[in-house]
Amino acid sequence: MKRLSLFFRSIRFRLALWFVVILGIVIVAFSAFIYYRQVQDLQAVAIARLEIKTRRLGGFLRFASRDYFKHRPLQFPSDPASGESFLQEEDELAFVDPKGQAVQSWGPINTSWINQLVTEKINYQDTQIAFSHMVEVGEKTPSRYLWVVAPVESGNNPVGFFLIGTPIDPNGQLPRLLVSLTLGVLLTLGVALAGGVWLADRAMRPVKMITEAAQTISETDLSLRLNLDRKDELGELADTFDAMLNRLQASFERLRQFTADASHELRTPLTIVDLESSRALTTQRPAQEYERVLKVIQSENQFMIRMVTNLLTLARMDAGQVTLHKEEVDLSDVALEVVERLAPIAIREKARLSAGDLPELPILGDRQYLVQMLSNLVENAIKYSSVEDIRVHVEAGSRNSENGTQAWVRVIDNGIGIAPDHLPHLFDRFYQVDKARTHQNGEAEVEGDNQNRQKVTEVFDSAPSGTGLGLSIAQWIAQAHGGEIRVQSELGKGSTFEASFPSVASKANSLQ
Known about the structure:
- The protein is α+β, with helices and mostly antiparallel strands.
- Helix content is 54%, strand content 18%.
- The chain is built from 13 helices and 12 strands.
């Protein structure tokens, strides 16, 4: 019973039912038209028969003597030439006097019916008229007759009229036609309903497959795909479903990787803090040792604070909770502000931070976030530059492109560089270049220069560990401003990060 109830509520049954309803309306309308045309044709044939009978009756009356109506009973009218009756089976002929009483009738209809018909339908003073009326013929079911009234005059005095009637459907075609049409409609609708359910079931089978696939998919297993080889709407739906699963699987994999990386990055400083504090508490130690332990704990705590802050920033960005207050900003002023703010850090790291050409470059943006983006790029350049003679250069400019004028700012360093296979993943969260792998690549690229190779090795061994989130944040800020960040790098020679944005002039021109 439950399955039957579900079937009646299913889409395939409703589709089939609507199909049958529409088909039924069309078939019933067509059948009604056929029935109506058949009635019209039978009525036209009956009228033609009555016209012939009326003309023959007129010929008989002209042939008969003038004393025909004086002798009762009246002689049955017949063809003057052959003497044969011009009435067919079930035809009715009656002579009615001026008072409206049937004097004599020939045919299957009772005289009482003739009198009632004359009283209801006929005014004997009318000229020849035609009408149809339902009368009862003997013990048969009522039948519709078509009647013609033929007035008769003797001299200038009316002596009465003949009433001639013939059945519209003498052979009973209309009832048989009605039964045939009814059975045909019912049989057609039954076959259409069964076929419609079957076709709808076949058409909805891919939807059932999608439903079953969705029920089997879980967070731990997103590998199932439909792979329907169809070129219709359901195939498009299946392809969209597969594409959605691909995006979900990629998102879950990034989420799992993000969780694993965050746990790994936080586990290291927590382990260091635990080890240093446990070591300091085991035995009595000099004040210098306690000071060293506290500095280590403070350093690791600052690292975790930076990581948690960056994680919260990225979470707010992903959730759309970051509101950019865009206004016209000079990109060169932003670059100059970043250089001035990070100058003390560059001095501490023994790096030379310089600024090049900084022309006026108006863009629409949030100054605070633009400063954060450029600061991340500059700090990253200082962190991964060479040990000796660290040089970080910041410059800005503009260029024309297919999308209009683009304002750009570059951060150029002479650091260790980045291997080509790491560049596509550089802006992924928690992604950090593998030191050992890059060290090997660096040695391969800097052959014949032992001194330079030694510098690259020392930098990898002494480079500070970052959170791996700074470039991700910088990329998000650039994209939120309608821009992008590109990177070019060569091992042992340095890297160039370029952030480009649509200029205000370009936006103004596009609106004109």
